[in-house]
Amino acid sequence: MQTRTLEQRIKFDSGLNIGTHLVRFTLGERSRLALARIGARGAVSYLTKPEPGDMYTTWTDVKGDTSQSGKGAVIVWGARNPEYLRAFDGEPVASIPVQ
Asked: What is the pTM of this model?
């Protein structure tokens, strides 16, 4: 049996459509909130909720099982910005294993 890539799990296995969605990434007992974005042409990226000590946060592009960050805008001290953190409020619409 072939394992699906992270990109496929985000795009097809979690019921997400085009747009930005609050999701939970899981790895065993660990989990992390993130905003997952599926673009109009199918490009997938995510932005994890910053931890209190994280100075920088940026969108990460996903291709297959490869993630690459640093190509977009950088958010500085996002964990200190209540307006920015509100995007992570609410119940995640999907739980996505990162394996």
From this structure: 0.89
